[in-house]
Specification:
The structure is a homodimer. Chain A is an alpha+beta fold. Chain A contains ten helices and 23 strands. In chain A, a hairpin with a 4-residue loop joins β15 and β16.
Chain lengths: 390, 390
């Protein structure tokens, strides 16, 4: 194992261990980088393809106990040479900024994590997330503003959208390609005979996540209002994270059931048969609530053991009651020319019933994959920084 | 609670409890159906929309301790009347077949579950999963055969596909709409300068699941060969379920790490930034292995705690070594006019390097969502049975 060489007084201090190097940052905290980890993350053009920016290095060809032949810190970063049998590698360089951004310690990972702010009905308003359509279409700043609202609050509202058929696709494609589903590339929400979906009736729709029977329900939903002059037909938005947090506070056992017990969701028609099992509440590895799969109309038949079914039902009804409470709901009228854009994993949407004889209510909707939506936001935020350095 | 009425001697016996009815099937086994469960699954037109086949019933309006006012078994099934305050309900009927198909007991659910058969290289051959393209395009039987191969072994091979550009889309759309990704609606696999993906180089590709950095990697992959007369460029298929099973047998601790420890996968380019965390092995709630997310080129930087990183790396390398062993791999030459169709969650694919100066190798590929693929298979299997009765 080589002794580290410190070439620059202002750079982090290096301390070599048997299998790793500790970096003591100027602020005083330490990070440990395993030599194997460093070797695997070599970005020289023999180890990482410079255009594809994918690793070409063969993991199994690296000795798991590899140690550097030299290790040097200068003002820019850490330079490592590997033993001669690693012939193809041109030597590794890691900037301090890159190393700091990729510290593997759990607290560093948690500090990097973006956490959304949950909200209740009173905390929210259409105006607070509204962005003008022409600004979104014509400027990167306007687009970034729209996307950031969806990341933070789960919802944005584009205003001044032309009340034209297909305009929802134009807006969605400003962000990424359209995510198709068994209801098509886009869909028209209006009352019609022989509705293959409750949305296509004038009935009330209770708060739900769309297409909950899909293994991967669609990511970001766009609902564009072309016309709305009916009696009734108000829109409702609910933050599912806030609802699940409320349940966790008031009844932790119920929360645990919904976060751990998988149940079946099903959608059947003459043309499709989409059945999957999942939990009602989606919690990530750190215990953070990321969303729900709440859709009573598509739930079941519930196939949890009869002995625990009643516990499941009580928990499910508690969450439904929270999501249905006026406290949690933001109720508004979606006007012609407005398009609501929301994270379908996080935000429940609903509508009140309407009288189809009183006028017309016509929305058009589509989806964009969450990954491609978040990717667009990340690329906009780079603002000229080299993608290889992020 | 009403005493059950038995109208038909041949029908299952009914025994009423406080909160549920036990059905004693003619074969002797019993199933328990909670009254609440039965009420929730009422299929009368007031409770379930007859066209949309979605529940319109409001869960919160059902008393959780509901009991039937009458409960009658006849030759066809179970008839239930609910108390008068449940005014809108027209009364419930459940056929014995439907009840038996939806028993909630865990062993009943496990018995209904389709489990694929895992395979190693020697167990597999192109010929065993080959279906003629015209048979697939022109007959439901041919299509069903293709889809069933993918369900059972994870792979099918369409032969005699026209070696035309875009033919892969025609085949995919015979099944469902095309699942787009950040590489487009379809992609061309051939060597080119400034490749934005290792597949577009003549390099070897190690066994991998495609687009592993996506939160939901694409479902079913189609790879259609238009031309392949290069030296090298052989194709490889590996059953990831068999690999993960082998790891579980030989090193259960390594298996548990890969099934439980989430790591980051990243794909970055000037145009996208797709980063997600997931486990390497995907295990369902019953402990059944459903697939992997194995893609060393896109892995990391690995952000598990430095103290446990070496355990993670050892486990990952063990799985890579299994997937790279000749024992597990089926190696073949994908010829012009053949299209391999495979489950991207279950099947790892790879190719050997080739000499781009020796000829041409050109594939076109696309994806179809797994849900829509499985839906098509389920609908074909209905063979005229009413979807409401399934």
């Amino acid at each position: 194992m080589a002794e580290p060489v410190q070439e620059s007084a202002g750079a982090p201090r290096l301390e070599a261990d048997d299998d790793s190097v500790r970096v003591v940052w100027p602020e005083g905290h330490e990070s440990r980088f395993l030599y194997y980890w460093l070797r695997e993350n070599c970005h020289c053009s023999a180890c990482t393809h410079p255009d594809a920016w994918e690793r070409t290095l063969d993991f199994l060809a690296i000795p798991i106990d590899i140690t550097p032949s030299s290790l040097t810190g200068d003002a820019a970063g850490l330079h490592i040479e590997w033993p001669a049998h690693e012939a193809s590698c041109e030597g590794s360089f890691y900037s301090w900024a890159w190393l700091e951004a990729h510290r593997a310690e759990r607290e560093a990972r948690l500090a990097r994590k973006r956490r959304p702010t949950s909200w209740q009905g009173d905390d929210f308003s259409k105006a607070s997330v509204a962005v003008d359509y022409s600004k979104v279409m014509e400027t990167d700043g306007g687009l970034l503003e729209l996307l950031a609202h969806v990341e933070n609050t789960g919802v944005a509202l584009a205003t001044g959208v032309p009340a034209d058929e297909g305009a929802v696709l134009t807006l969605a494609q400003r962000i990424a390609f359209v995510e198709e589903s068994h209801f098509g590339r886009y869909f028209q929400v209006e009352s019609k005979p022989h509705a293959e979906n409750l949305a296509y009736t004038p009935n009330a729709l209770r708060p739900h996540n769309d297409l909950a029977s899909r293994r991967y329900p669609p990511g970001i939903q766009f609902l564009h209002c072309l016309r709305n002059d009916v009696t009734g037909g108000d829109s409702v938005l609910v933050d599912a994270i806030a609802c699940a947090e409320a349940l966790r506070r008031t009844d932790d056992c119920a929360f645990e059931i919904l976060a751990n017990c998988q149940v079946t969701f099903a959608s059947r028609s003459p043309d499709w048969h989409i059945v999957n099992r999942a939990t009602i509440i989606d919690v990530d590895e750190d215990g953070d609530i990321v969303g729900t799969r709440l859709h009573p109309a598509l739930l079941g038949p519930v196939d949890v053991e009869p002995d625990v079914q009643m516990d499941f039902y009580r928990a499910h009804r508690e969450l439904l009651a929270i999501a249905s409470s006026t406290e949690m709901q933001y109720r508004f009228r979606l006007e012609a020319g407005e398009c609501q854009v929301f994270d379908n994993r996080r935000i429940l949407h609903a509508r009140s019933s309407y009288d189809p004889a009183s006028g017309h209510r016509m929305l058009q909707g589509c989806y964009v994959c969450r990954d491609d939506f978040m990717s667009r936001l990340a690329v906009l935020r780079r603002k000229g920084r080299e993608f290889r350095e992020i």
